[in-house]
Amino acid sequence: DNGLYYATRARIKNELYKPLITSPTYQNIVADINVAIALDPQNYEFYKFRNSVLSKSLSSAEMLTEFQKLIAIFPEKGELYAQIGYIHIQNYEFANAIPELSKAIELNPELEKSYRLRALSFHNLNKLNNAIQDYNVSIGKLIQQHRGDKDNKNYQKTLAETFNLRAITYTRSGDLHEACQDYSASAKLGSKKGYNNYRRNCNVYNLTK
Fold first, then answer.
1. Torsion angle, alpha carbons of 3, 64, 62, 6, to 10
2. Could you give the CA distance from residue 93 to residue 101 in angstroms, rounded to a whole number?
3. pTM of the model as a whole
4. Model pLDDT for residues 125-151, shown as the tens digit of each residue
5. Among residues 48, 37, 42, which one has the least CA distance to residue 6?
């Protein structure tokens, strides 16, 4: 038997029906993924898909356990530590998020999201210089990794949000000049938050400059 068959069947069901977690179809999807994993226990993509499905029904504590189980199997996957860091952020456990995100960066320095999430954690712990440094890396990697994909809407949205987040950190640090440049960049990329923050904080500047 081929695990890919069961994983593909599960994906098709998931995309076609988008089932409620209480439905038999949802349970069938999880069962198919479990069969796929049993047939090919070293296929990381199968586990990744299962976690994306389980995230609809499990609590953050339960998902934390699922990611920790995966780390035991795939300790080299930096994105797993980033996911754990993200769960800590969702629970406002910013000090707990930082070592997980640092480990994610150590294992995969090109994973831009890890820098962005760690910056957010630093900001909430009032470690503003650290936050700005990580936002700098995040923005640099976003631009570099999407150099030939500038019209990608998801990229533009993420970049706009990151400019806005860095601007908020600059504002808290008292550097309104840098903040307003970032609010302006965010607004020009289509962010309403960036635009509103610009108008609220930067009326001495011209958005068109």
1. -10
2. 12
3. 0.89
4. 999 999 999 999 999 999 998 887 777
5. 37
